[in-house]
């Protein structure tokens, strides 16, 4: 089922570009790890947080042969920070997508189809989750004692669960209720198929493209929300593009002014990451004729 969705999404130009952007970001993460662990880049100079080039002064400096993207106001290599910043967003995106997909697909299918009484409760819970959007929850958690515990995987897990129980659940639920009285579902009941068997073998394959499309779109919003949260330092102490933009603006105003080579790389990074999941959602919608 999901292999077919993957192959179908790759057929369109939107899917090809989306997968290309995602592959590029993943490659940057592995390349950065290799350059540091193999000592091709000295850690005292190219570490994304504590690196500092003492042979260059003052900072920030424009792009050069030793620092292709220049240095930031704190003397760190911008290219190293840009490559390291891809890891948190990749982790957040993957955790958010797969966990949200699991919650949306299984909870949104099994509960409305099998457990009718629980479905009435889940409908109200989902309506309450909509009034408590995941970006707002992320910002609230980041202002308290949890800030140091909000790793990208934890943020992705929280975002995926809330997204899966929100609008995505209601959309999948409505689709399940729409097809539960279809002729092939009635035929399966007549020949003795259990409710669980029918839900997992006949209903889920129908609603799976809808769930994938919804969670790809939701993950795009999660990337943007993480960008705002990381800009305000509410996602823990980890290399990220939001921190790069904050440092460039805040420290740059005191140490020689804001330099565009400090701002352009993380901005492009956010665009590539969010665009990859958005383009994949567009591809799925076009291939399966989904209009949500």
Characterise the protein shown here.
The chain has 292 residues and is an all-alpha fold. The protein has a single domain, classed as MetI-like fold, CATH 1.10.3720. Helix content is 72%, strand content 0%. The chain is built from 13 helices and no strands. It has helices spanning 2-11, 13-37, 43-46, 78-84, 86-114, 116-130, 134-142, 152-165, 167-179, 183-190, 195-231, 241-250, 260-288. The chain is elongated, with a radius of gyration of 22 Å. The model has no long low-confidence stretch (mean pLDDT 83).
In short, what is this structure?
This protein is mainly alpha-helical.
Tell me the number of structural domains: 1
How far is the N terminus from the C terminus? 21 Å
Major β-sheet, in short? none
Question: What letter string, H or E per element, gives the SSE order?
Answer: HHHHHHHHHHHHH
How many helices? The count is 13
How much is the average pLDDT?
Answer: 83
Give the number of DSSP strands.
0
Rg computed from alpha carbons, rounded to a whole number of angstroms: 22 Å
Question: Under the CATH scheme, which architecture would be assigned?
Answer: Orthogonal Bundle
How would the global form be characterised?
elongated
Helix/strand-derived category reads mainly alpha
- If you consult CATH, what is the topology? MetI-like fold
How much of the sequence lies in strands comes to: under 5%
**What's the CATH class label?**
Mainly Alpha
- Considering DSSP H and I runs of 4 or more, what fraction of the residues is helical? over 70%
- Identify low-pLDDT runs: none
């Amino acid at each position: 089922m999901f292999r077919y969705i993957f192959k179908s999404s790759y057929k369109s130009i939107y899917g090809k570009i989306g997968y290309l952007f995602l592959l590029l970001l993943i490659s940057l993460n592995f390349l950065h790890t290799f350059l540091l662990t193999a000592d091709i880049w000295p850690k005292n100079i190219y570490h994304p947080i504590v690196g500092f080039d003492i042979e260059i002064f003052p900072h920030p400096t424009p792009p050069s042969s030793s620092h292709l993207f220049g240095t930031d106001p704190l003397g760190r290599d911008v290219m190293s920070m840009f490559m390291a910043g891809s890891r948190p967003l990749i982790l957040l995106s993957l955790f958010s997508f797969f966990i949200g997909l699991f919650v949306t697909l299984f909870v949104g299918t099994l509960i409305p189809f099998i457990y009718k009484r629980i479905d009435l409760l889940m409908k109200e819970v989902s309506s309450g989750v909509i009034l408590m959007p995941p970006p707002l929850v992320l910002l609230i958690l980041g202002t308290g004692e949890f800030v140091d515990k909000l790793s990208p995987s934890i943020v992705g897990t929280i975002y995926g669960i809330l997204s899966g129980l929100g609008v995505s659940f209601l959309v999948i639920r409505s689709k399940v209720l729409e097809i539960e009285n279809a002729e092939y579902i009635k035929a399966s009941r007549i020949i003795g198929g259990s409710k669980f068997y029918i839900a997992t073998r006949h209903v889920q394959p129908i609603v799976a493209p809808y769930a994938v499309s919804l969670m790809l779109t939701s993950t795009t919003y999660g990337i943007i929300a993480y960008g705002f949260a990381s800009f305000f330092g509410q996602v823990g102490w980890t290399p990220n593009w939001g921190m790069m933009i904050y440092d460039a603006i805040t420290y740059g105003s005191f140490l020689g002014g804001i330099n565009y080579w400090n701002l352009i790389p993380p901005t492009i990074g956010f665009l590539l990451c969010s665009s990859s999941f958005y383009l994949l959602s567009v591809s799925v919608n076009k291939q399966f004729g989904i209009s949500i």
